[in-house]
Design a protein that fits this description.
Elements (H helix, E strand, L loop, with lengths): L1 E10 L2 E4 H11 L2 H14 L3 E4 L3 H5 L4 H27 L6 E8 L8 H8 L7 E6 L5 H15 L4 E8 L12 H7 L5 E8 L8 E9 L9 E4 L2 E4 L5 H18 L10 E4 L4 H11 L7 H10 L6 H12 L7 E8 L3 E8 L17 E2 L6
Parallel strand pairs: 1-14, 4-5, 4-6, 11-12
Antiparallel strand pairs: 1-7, 1-8, 2-3, 6-7, 8-13, 9-10, 12-13
Helix pairs in contact: 1-2, 4-5, 8-9, 10-11
Length: 371
């Protein structure tokens, strides 16, 4: 069984409050449409999100080229900060890393994110580089599953995961559609990193198994298309209905591999993509509202940070609701496809006790380059 030695999370310096989001919506849309969207933002209970640039500077980035220049700069910086923190927390030296997984769906880098991190942190030049892109919200949980597999291959070394998402730089400011505006009101920039080891040392949760599932017939129900002025969100169709009907069965089938049932799972790290999908997932899984506390806390504080979200939720558990050692848990995220990624965890180490030095939110806010 692999072990998740550490998790670190980073939020950029610029805080966007819900009231500011509502003001921007009112300025961009006709009054009758704007007020409907404002009510949706208020009902969502999101309080703050974060971005790498102030909104006025983002609006000035008219083309995909100039946006991607900003993405390259900030993604590398945030990813390196998160990775450095994860290595220090895990007490892992740079030469102990045998593979690095870079996760992002909101920009383009060549060479890829993990290559820049290897170079900046002076990791082993022989590290295996694995870019994991365009999985959207499911990318973080997928990377945990992949890291578990790679930890078996790289049995004498550790696997580093680096996740960076900067959706603020993808928002199309030229003639945005109502769907674009609503999507931008839900997404927030953020980053995370994690270190995984093949050996169990009792320093973090065990990673028992992982699985993937596509929901047939839904490939066009949730998607994004790249345009010259940014990423345009397709209008999501039937996603909540799909989760309510299918997620429970998919999870049951996954758990049955280990002769387990949902009742055997003590905690649920569910991706807080938005309140509607989170509620649909809970309904399908038969979860009480209390089981969603960590996910809702991340949503209120940071919005949808896409692939980085699962790491923020796991850290929220360690800060606000430490688990009993040996307790089983599930990490679940649903994303482009439309499908879901799952990881079966066993609580241990940092997930079972409150860190000595932690912010109230359990996250660091990156207010400038530290590398």
């Amino acid at each position: 069984m692999a072990e998740l030695l550490s998790v670190s999370t980073i939020l950029p310096r610029y805080c966007v409050r819900a009231s500011e989001t509502c003001s921007a919506i009112r300025a961009a849309l006709p009054r009758n449409i704007a007020e409907r969207f404002v009510r949706m933002v208020e009902m969502s209970q999101n309080q703050t999100r974060y971005s790498v640039l102030p909104f006025e500077e983002i609006k000035a980035l008219k083309t995909l080229d100039v946006r991607n220049i900003q993405y390259s700069e900030h993604a590398v910086r945030l990813g390196t900060v998160a990775a450095d923190e994860a290595l220090r927390t895990a007490n892992v030296q740079p030469n102990e890393i045998g593979a690095v997984i870079g996760v992002s769906s909101t920009g383009h880098l060549m060479p890829t994110l993990e290559t820049h991190v290897i170079d900046r942190l002076h990791l082993s030049a022989n590290s295996r580089r694995v870019p994991l892109t365009q999985l959207g919200c499911a990318g973080g949980v997928a990377s945990l599953g992949l890291a578990r597999v790679l930890s078996e291959v790289e049995s004498e070394s550790k696997v580093l995961i680096v996740s960076v998402e900067l959706p603020s730089l993808s928002f199309p400011t030229v003639e945005p559609s109502p769907t674009d505006i609503l999507a931008s009101a839900q997404f927030g920039d953020g980053a995370a990193a994690a270190v995984m080891s093949r050996r169990r040392e009792g320093r973090g949760p065990g990673v028992i198994d992982s699985g993937s599932a596509l929901f047939p017939g839904t490939i066009n129900d949730d998607g994004v298309r790249s345009t010259g002025v940014g990423l345009r969100q397709s209008r999501p169709r039937r996603l909540a209905e799909t989760l309510r009907r299918r997620l429970g069965d998919v999870v049951d089938e996954f758990l049955s591999r280990h002769r387990l049932r949902r009742a055997d799972v003590g905690f649920w790290a569910i991706h807080p993509r938005n309140p509607q999908l989170l509620a649909a997932a809970a309904t399908s899984l038969g979860l009480a509202e209390s089981a969603l506390a960590a996910s809702r806390a991340v949503w209120r504080r940071a919005g949808n940070v896409i692939s980085a979200a699962v790491f923020h939720v796991l850290q929220e558990f360690s800060v606000a609701s430490p688990r009993e050692a040996g307790e089983l848990g599930m990490a679940i995220a649903y994303g482009a496809g439309f499908g879901c990624e799952m990881v079966l965890l066993q609580a241990g180490g940092w997930l079972c006790s409150r860190p000595v030095e932690a912010t109230a939110a359990g996250e660091a806010v990156a207010d400038g380059p530290r590398t």
